[in-house]
Design goal:
Two copies of one chain form a homodimer. The first copy, chain A, has five helices and twelve strands. By secondary structure, the first copy, chain A, is of the alpha+beta class. In chain A, the strands form three sheets. Chain A has a five-stranded antiparallel β-sheet, with helices on one face. A five-stranded antiparallel β-sheet of chain A has the order 5-6-7-8-9, with helices on one face. Chains A and B meet through helix 3, helix 4 and helix 5 of A and helix 3, helix 4 and helix 5 of B.
Chain lengths: ~240, ~240
């Protein structure tokens, strides 16, 4: 499995993705599930992917192939004028990969699984964040629901439900995503370190804050230990049930 | 869905179950998923059930029918001499219901879903706790893994993973199960109040501490609010990521 989460804030966007992939439980590898593209001062886009790795890699290759193509007529994530149009391009790439691989997968009893979080900013717009489905359609984050999760999302959802707020600082939001990851990593073996993090500051239109958190990362260890201690203390301080 | 959880402690056993059942999202009812039986001073047994309500009710009726039968030759949960044998009786009841209903369900594309937590004590033994599967086989809780969850278990697992300890007091463990429920209730609509709680003190051999926590229960409201505040404080006190 996979765990990816992204948060839309007043100050920008924050993305995090684990890197574990597995075919069965005894064939585990590390693949980045966070991809980003930028045209300095013009546009920044980030894609988080969950599902069948062959499918999600094909989608990304499809998107990047456009960049090298000379066909200026077709819409690509590098030439569209809004994030909505860019999300359409990503959705179209999902449908193209389905057209190529879907039938063969279904014939073998495998389902076409792909779930994407896509966000970023194009000059002239505010940052936007989308959740794109295997069918190629998508929804957009609003003030009511400012975060999206894909993959193994349940363990890390309670803390997001309680703490996520649109007015958080980027570093604070990055901390929140890592706490959400910590809960998931402890409870589910199919999600694994390292974790890729990207914090995008609104109107910056370039990627300056991207980090891979390794297993032995000092900050993450302190965060994880500190959170455990704080949770136990918080729990001890609650009144006991008289039953 | 459903959320049920039970914890085996040095001091006894604690069980909790929600009461929401649904057929589709617009047909919601309240059914107890916590069933208990006692023979005063002789045996106490508790069963938590998740899955298809028709199946789990049939299993319970099957177990109770034994009580009224005069056939003293057959093993029932009321005449066996160990909790292991009792778990076998429950597993057999699951298999009998499968024999009756399984084919018709599968013919309509419905799967035979039933997942049970079964625990208690028979005089002469220590309290024991089992997780019984839809196939009728089961596993037992040990010191290494002292809790079982069934149904919508992921949201409430991180806090159990961090806080559950075999030397907890019963009231402390009941508090833990309610915190685990609170996370689940907030994040998943298919799990609903009221929550049934039962705390069994080892060697008591009678049920004295059983409680239904209603939506407007003062203790639960304070616990839920207190936990939210404590979590946010704990989160705020952790160092921010410099990214």
């Amino acid at each position: 499995m996979t765990y990816c989460v992204a948060l839309k804030l007043e100050r920008g966007l924050v993305f995090a993705a684990d890197t574990r992939t597995n075919a069965g439980i005894d064939n585990i590898s590390t693949f980045s599930k966070l991809h980003s593209w930028e045209q300095d001062g013009e546009r920044v886009m980030v894609l988080l992917s969950a599902g069948n790795l062959a499918i999600t890699q094909a989608i990304i290759s499809q998107l990047e192939q456009h960049q090298r193509s000379d066909n200026l007529d077709s819409a690509t994530i590098f030439n569209v004028q809004s994030m909505f149009q860019a999300a359409r391009v990503v959705g179209d790439a999902v449908r193209q990969v389905y057209a190529i691989d879907g039938k063969a997968l279904e014939a073998r009893g495998e389902s076409f699984t792909a779930s994407l979080i896509f966000g970023g900013q194009i000059k002239g717009e505010s940052p936007r964040l989308f959740h794109i489905y295997a069918e190629g359609n998508f929804i957009e984050a609003t003030d009511d629901t400012a975060f999206f999760q894909i993959g193994e999302h349940k363990y890390g959802k309670p803390i997001l439900d309680r703490v996520a707020r649109a007015d958080m600082r980027l570093g604070e939001a990055a901390k929140l995503l890592l706490v959400s990851f910590d809960s998931t990593l402890r409870s589910n073996l199919s999600v694994g370190m390292p974790v890729d993090l990207l914090a995008y500051q609104a109107d910056n239109l370039r990627i300056t804050r991207k980090k891979r958190i390794e297993q032995d990362d000092e900050y993450f260890k302190d965060l994880s230990d500190g959170w455990s201690v704080a949770l136990r203390e918080a729990f001890d301080n609650l009144p006991e049930l008289e039953i």
